Amino acid sequence: MHEAGIAAEILEIARAQAVAHGKARVAEVTVRVGDMSGVVAEALEFAFEALRDGPASGAALVMKRIAVLAKCETCGTESRPGADLVLWCESCGRPLKVLEGEELTVESVVLEGAEE
Amino acid sequence: MSERVAVETPVLKKNDEYAAGNREWFASLGIAVINIMSAPGAGKTTLLEKTLPMLAGRYSCAVIEGDLQTDLDAERIRRVGVRAHQINTTCCHLDARMVQGAAATFLESPPEVLFIENIGNLVCPASYDLGESVKVTLFSVVEGADKPKKYPKMFRMSDCVVLNKTDLLPYSGVELDELLSNVRDVSPEAAVFTVSARTGEGLAEWVEWLAARVEKVRGR
Q: Among the residues of A1-116, which ranges form H helices?
């Protein structure tokens, strides 16, 4: 699984924010995880906890799951495909474009303490 | 005192930057890059062993092989007369930086078509842009008709889905129509081919599609 690599990237982005803002610690990292991002939440949590170190050694990981939102570019209908993931427009039978649900993004960090 | 800071950075930004660099580099050299992804044992190397001789004479080819251990696959490619570079990594996927290093080994005489045989894994490779021109998901029919729904990402992002091992259909209990319909549901716009790399059935159509894509990428 690639969640260890993902966790390492998240921690690096968070630590860089602490340095850039002159803060000692990262208290929290909020990440948007799309349902179609291919990331397993439990595996990411485990890897994040195992890899936390330095200014991020006490950081909490907050995951916001993002459901799949798709839009038909022909008729403009927006829909939330269920678990069966049929990515065709029910109204006009054209392929749907996925607007949300594929993202894997560090949304924000909570930083604390002045740099020592 | 704590402070919340908005970041809005894609987690794989670093890889994406390498991939963008690769894409520019490959374009400047006129190399069409084909990333082939699948679960282990779906037949990536066999597909390449059959595809490469069909492209010989039309394009100079090279192959980057990704595996956890051994250079068995690179050896198989060399046996059909094509240059191959083996990457061994403990990662479950290839990333854009590894591909950059491997591609550089061919630069004395850059190929026209560079195939990347990704690490066998139906999940992780889908997250890593390599700077390729064409993404292909290879899937052996014996893996089951439900898998495109269970592992949608790789199918969805591929330009082409090749369904392999059709010669095993009679023994598999898998209904080809059901599998095709599930592929279509999650990946409406991919080109889909059914082949048996072992018997050669269906390979001509796949190779013609591939050659047309190569021409398009190389701007002819």
A: 3-20, 41-51
- Residue-range domains of chain B with CATH: 13-215 (3.40.50.300)
pTM above 0.90, yes or no: yes
Question: Is B92 touching A (CB cutoff 8 A)?
Answer: yes
Element (H or E) spanning A35, and its range?
Answer: none
CB contact under 8 A, A96 and B188: yes
| Of B54, B33, B61, B60, residue with least CA distance to B205 | B54
A3-114: CATH topology: hypothetical protein PF0899 fold (3.30.2320)
Which of helix, strand or coil describes residue B8? strand
Place of tokens 């930004």: B13
Closest CA to A44 of A85, A95, A3: A3
Which of A2, A12, A107 best tests the B interface by mutation, with the highest count of B CBs <10 A?
A: A2
Q: What is the DSSP letter of A67?
A: -
Q: Can you tell me the ipTM of this complex?
A: 0.91
Q: What's the angle, vertex CA A104, arms to CA A73 and CA B130, rounded to 5?
A: 85
pLDDT in tens, A95-107: 999 999 999 999 9
User: Which residues of A are less than 8 Å from B4 in CB distance?
Assistant: 108-111
A36: closest CA of chain B, how far (Å): 6
Domain boundaries, chain A: 3-114
Radius of gyration of chain B (CA): 18
